[in-house]
What does this fold into?
Amino acid sequence: MSAATEIKTLIIDGKDVSARPDQTILDVARENGINIPTLCHLDGLSDVGACRLCLIEIKGQNRLLPACVARVEEGMEVTTTSERIARHRRTILELLFAERNHICAVCVANGNCELQALAQQLGLTHVRFPYRNPALAVDASHERFTCDHNRCILCTRCVRVCAEIEGAHVWDVEGRGADCKVITDLAQPWGDKNSSCTKCGKCVQVCPTGALYEKGKVGVEHPKRPDFLPYLNLMREAQ
Amino acid sequence: MNLEELQQIASGVHNENLLFDFEVNVCQGTGCLSQHSDDIKAALEAALAASGKKALIRRTGCMGLCAAGPLVLIEPDAQLLQHVTVKHADAVINSLGATPVAELQCDLRQHFDDQDHVVLENSGRIDPEKIDEYIARDGYQGLVMALTDMRPADVIKQITESGLRGRGGGGYPTGLKWGMVAKAQSETKYVICNGDEGDPGAFMDRSGLESDPQRVIEGMAIAAYAVGASKGYIYVRAEYPLAVSRLTVSLREARRRGLLGNNICGTPFNFDIEIRLGAGAFVCGEETALIASIEGLRGTPRVRPPYPAASGLWGKPTLINNVETFANVPTILRKGGAWFAAIGTAKSKGTKVFALTGKIRNTGLVEVPMGMPLRQIVEGIGGGVPEGRTFKAVQTGGPSGGCIPAELLDIEVSYESLIQAGSMMGSGGMIVMDDTSCMVNVAKFFMEFCMTESCGKCIPCRAGTVQMHTLLTRICDGSGTMDDLDLLVDLCSTVKEASLCGLGQTAPNPVLSTLRYFKQEYMDHIVNKRCTAGVCNINHAAEVIA
It folds into this structure.
């Protein structure tokens, strides 16, 4: 960053903050101890603005913006929590819980799940929508890991970490709408002998739920460590 | 190529036409072709050869009045023949210069007289695959004028002055968009024509590409000159094979005439166009998804900004406009921005093509000046709903639009007034519904469309449309409750405000607009367990349990 970088000042939730022009509202908010809920965002990966949990209000604009991709602007007045936003966030979480089979009591990620934690944090007490109970497969063909589509929220962190950090691009998404599914290679079993998987396990570490997990580990034994990413990126940049 | 050479080509065509006493135009649009108008053309040719008369039998694009097809137009006396079959060929040829065939006369003066053809001016008049016929009707004058007499900034000024707005539905000022791409600093820029028309009941772009493809090519070339691009893409659905084949021929013809390629008109301007086929995803009509699709990626929208004008195809500044928008451009350049701005309302200029479908007599393609009352389109040009039925609503804007009830039929057609009425202009589909349509069922139909066409990237659209569809299905089959209705309204708000792209943001519109104007029908289903239109199969077991 050159010395001549222009510094922007803005207000987030009534607090005066400063930022570099290339920072997102989410970056700046978190830097200043303001928490905005996210699921698809992960420090160290590109942002897709898909989960819509980080929507925030900007004074003078009727449209809600995703904080993970919206850049700061001079004089912006940002509100990260309002009745309107809280309602949308809860509805989005409800939609996720009703979409697949998220049954915390029998999930390997119970206690270490970002979806579960957000539901608690945002005060979600029940789901108003009918559960869809889809019949989804579990891919346990890999020697070390399992992919359970029942717990997948399609955040595409696994897709991005594999393509952007590991450089293998094993993961991708197939299908459309509610039929979307993360797939390995060209929808081959993850453990296929010709799989391009390097077994690095990065996808498992960044998965926010119990969709990807290490075999033989459950619940409290399975805390994930997605925070390796910014460190890894920093080390790579230093080289 | 210069204006004189264009005139030479044009007079060549005119002289050739003078050799004939009559011109028999046979519609070869998709609608008429589905009723074998190609066989009719062959039969007419055979009958003509036998008769020894001097007539030109010409294949043309769509004549607009699809309900009366197959259509044949006989010049010079502008006789329109409807429902022509192979059996009529001899009678039609015999009638040339004699008494017209009475049983085939199509006498729908009002249908045509109330229209104002700009985009459709050549549609049904020229052979879409013959570039010289397009040139004979003043084609390519706009491009040649732009290249030889105008600076790019002058072209943009004309477009801005014309007040033309995006015809794909958004209504973004075209001149402003061109100006943004022109100002973007980059050696490489692209022009994309969005022909991924996917709204149920819409066929304006298909018909435009089938009937007058050179107009779109010329519009794109002018745009490319204005913004400084040298490469263009036309993104057409693979489901439009006739449009694709006519475009392919037309691109070849334009290159042959030196109107595409390097050093066009002897100037340093280079431009060529490639066709890209859509693989059947509605969401690829969204500009960022369309760009991803051209790049060979999964067709999903991305967050804007950056807008394509700054960073589009392969990260380069990209101008992306709809087929109809480009089709307006040649005429604007030829006649001037002020001429175009004189048509229409204060904020919506020019004409708009609509595809009239549903429960209406004169199904087909119409082009009317902006500001025309909806009633004149539906009841005048469209001929109203069939005998014995009553009009209930007209759906505009496809799955992003809404239903406009009978009491609002007097509103004018413009971007603003349609949005005010809870619908939108959209790309131009107009589906007319009568008393046999159940509005809850209509909302369910469009929701099912959005649900299956959602790309699945963002949660509100992917999971929200599924839940809205479930709630609408419950209401339709009689098991819905008032709580379901409240939940539906609540969900509409989240999907509308929280979705990533236009598909999700507008998916609740058919529900919201039917709730606004036809709430009683929802109540009938929920409280009285009745579907007054007799469409829904109400589950009376649910009533007993309740």
Q: What stands out?
A: Strands of chain A lie at 8-12, 15-19, 55-58, 65-66, 77-79, 138-139, 145-148, 171-174, 181-184, 212-214. Chain A touches chain B through 34 residues (CB under 8 Å).
